[in-house]
Amino acid sequence: MNDKSSPFLSRLDAVAADIEVLLDKLLAAAPLDDELSRPARLIEAMRYASLNGGKRFRPFLVVESAALFEVPRQSALMAGAALECVHCYSLVHDDLPAMDNDDLRRGQPTAHKKFDEATAILAGDGLLTFAFDILSRRETHADPGVRIELVTALARASGVGGMAGGQMLDLAAEGRFVQSRAALEFSEKDVRTLQAMKTGALLRFACQAGGILAAATPAQRAALERYGTAVGQAFQIADDLLDLEGDPALVGKQTGKDAAAGKATLVSVLGVPAAKARLKELVTEAEQALAPFGSSAAILIEGAKFVADRHA
Predict the structure, then answer these.
(1) What is the mean pLDDT of residues 246-261?
(2) Residue 143 contacts by C-beta under 8 Å, 6 or more apart in sequence?
(3) Are the CB atoms for 26 and 84 separated by under 8 Å?
(4) Which sign does the torsion angle of CA 178, 243, 83, 40 carry?
(5) pLDDT mean over 161-173
(6) 276: Cβ–Cβ under 8 A, 6 or more apart, which residues?
(7) 3-state secondary structure the chain
(8) How far is the C-alpha of 266 from the C-alpha of 193, rounded, in Å?
């Protein structure tokens, strides 16, 4: 998977490049016709938080799941850009002193360090709301019913029953709201729920979005959802292992913080060997979920293997 010439990495890089161009265009300094202004400092912070960074794996999942049904690439890229805005907003807010209190993200100063806390909060707010602006546009899909379905699905993946709720559970697992750590007992089931919401929900949406754009059958959508669920779990376990064993220079941020903060992770619950074994099982589950699509899903299968094998 480290072979830069592999078809998977070529496709991943192509989506990342296309998303970069699209976000650069969407987050231009000039206001739209029905916008009064785009304050320079705010748009600069939004661009700082969303451009020139990351592998764009979530948009990749949108584009490749949509490609199974020959959805026009531009529609998939628009949905992927919206999802990336939500993801980047979450990183900006997660890095804040009140949350994870991180100084580095992707090897660069976090948004609140580059600018200030108030600007970082507003940049996150701006990116979150802008995501739904993007999904509502005709360029995303000609059918308004499809656009509404995308808006609903992303709102639920990112809101109280998804990522935001998962972050609250994560804070609770750290003991933020109790007087004694002895009062905390997070079972494996609890941790799975937390991670399925905080991390898995957006990855699951990425795969659902392809089916929504294509008006896929219920069976096809269910297969994509199973794949997205497995990939989401694998992504979080791999992330937890990186925090424990990863090289900060490669990861692009400080490692070892989860254990120091007492975060509830599957690695802490299962132990490293069992967590790595579970990671392999999840790759198999992801592959099996895509069996109905045959060889056309080969790139998505490689995507699951990439998640499990990543080092940054």
Answers:
(1) 58
(2) none
(3) no
(4) positive
(5) 93
(6) 241
(7) CCCCCCHHHHHHHHHHHHHHHHHHHHCCCCCCCCCCCCCHHHHHHHHHHHCCCCCCHHHHHHHHHHHCCCCCHHHHHHHHHHHHHHHHHHHHHHCCCCCCCCCEECCEECHHHHCCHHHHHHHHHHHHHHHHHHHCCCCCCCCHHHHHHHHHHHHHHHCCCCHHHHHHHHHHHCCCCCCCHHHCCCCHHHHHHHHHHHHHHHHHHHHHHHHHHHCCCHHHHHHHHHHHHHHHHHHHHHHHHHHHHCCHHHHCCCCCHHHHHCCCCHHHHHCHHHHHHHHHHHHHHHHHHCHHHHHHHHHHHHHHHHHHHCCC
(8) 11
Average pLDDT over the chain reads 92
Structure tokens at 262: 């007492």
Query: What tokens does 167 get?
Result: 């972050």
Q: In the numeric block, which tokens belong to residue 252?
A: 């692009």
The model's pLDDT over 27-77, given as tens digits with 9 standing for 90+, comes to 999 999 999 999 999 999 999 999 987 899 999 999 999 999 999 999 999
Give the pLDDT band of residue 303 (cuts 50, 70, 90): very high
Asked if 282 and 234 count as a contact pair (C-beta separation under 8 A), the reply is yes
Q: Per residue in 90-110, pLDDT tens?
A: 999 999 999 999 999 988 999
Which residues neighbour 6 within 8 Å (Cβ) at sequence distance 6 or greater? Answer: 302
Phi, psi for 104 (deg, rounded to 5): -125, 145
Tell me what pLDDT residue 115 has.
98
Confidence (pLDDT) at 145: 98
Using the predicted structure, report yes or no on whether residue 255 has a pLDDT greater than 60.
Answer: no
pLDDT band of residue 312 (cuts 50, 70, 90) is low
Tokens for 161, please give them.
């029953």
Residue burial 131-161, b: 16+ Cβ < 10 Å; e: rest: bbebbeeeebbeeeebbebbbebbbebbeee
